[in-house]
DNA sequence: GTTCTTCAGTACCGAACGGTACAGAAACCC
DNA sequence: GGGTTTCTGTACCGTTCGGTACTGAAGAAC
């Protein structure tokens, strides 16, 4: 069936991209509806009609962010070995959180950490969103153990958590203005803890 | 000279401790003046007379947090070797951000990351506060290189940044409800990247 | 062309925000 | 005890918050 009535006068996905950027730069609480609608180029009423409310807009923005701006993470999972997956993910992550044409840092970290006030649900939602990625990585590393390119005694869950910890810590640094090269250097150090790093994992 | 007029009816330091906890749990923006003064047990006017305004109260709260709740960091710097310093710091950090009687995570991380809205100065202040600790660690590691207990080609600045990245990533995880044991396991992995880890640093 | 549905925009809602004026009370100095 | 100084408490300031009626206009179906 065709859509009745007057069709929407703006591109909902394009507007969502603008919302992503505002939330990314200012966080959930710091982004007011006026900030959002101004950036999206639409009216307050149109926003409510299209997305429901501010929290729902944020959830959709985060989902879109996970799809578009974190595509590198899914790409990294396709690398042939556990070590290659981790190295690709961490280096691509650094590039993503230090892009000149995007806000510094990571939306799913600086969007909201504290659980006080009206954004308790938001912090939970972001935590769950991050955990999804962590579990996907753990699954991939588990397969790497099964395939033998990670040592048999490797704990894939713990290793995945370590990798995410490094990426989140880098995001905090990036939000504070750290240089891209510095964060790549951090990754180079971090990778020394990963089984498969050249001659650096004699024990484990 | 003795103090003139009616003396203050509350303990300013004790009240500040309460404020630390509110900011820690709810972040700068998420903590309203009513939340703060209720927890501090004092009146709105008394708070303004004693601390100036909300942002100044936050700065003092962060400074007190750095003194009291992060004493473990200064203690860690006294360990005899670079590796021991890092191991002590990271493990003590995990305990600090997962204390049952305190909010989860780290005030200087979740206090405010985004620079939007009215808290741009706050994010900058926190970043500077974190950088102070990072530089103190870098100085200590530089001494470790000079003293020979870290390899001569170690970059103390990069290594200090790596350590802080791990601690900040752990703080993000802790704020999301991660278990203490899991974060200690993360630290155990992270330490494998540090020169001096048992037989694990063949290269570098 | 008529009707109906959905859009866009203004103007507004009550509530909460950070911050302050003002009045009264309490403790010091003399 | 008088005078002064500083604290405490209430009540309020203007602003901004997220969210919503309500008015027109625009387009599709018939």
Indicate the multimeric state: homodimer
Instruction: Please report the number of helical segments of chain A.
Output: 10
Tell me, briefly, the overall form of chain A: elongated
Count of β-strands of chain A: 0
How many domains is the backbone of chain A divided into? 2
Give the SSE order of chain A as H and E letters: HHHHHHHHHH
Question: What CATH architecture of the largest domain in chain A do you see?
Answer: Orthogonal Bundle
**Beta content of chain A:** under 5%
Q: What number is the mean pLDDT of chain A?
A: 91
Indicate the structural class of chain A.
mainly alpha
Q: Would you give the CATH topology of the largest domain in chain A?
A: Tetracycline Repressor, domain 2
Through-space gap between termini of chain A: 61 Å
Biggest interface, chains and residue tallies: A-B, 57 and 58 residues
Q: CATH homologous superfamily of the largest domain in chain A?
A: Tetracycline Repressor, domain 2
Radius of gyration of chain A: 19 Å
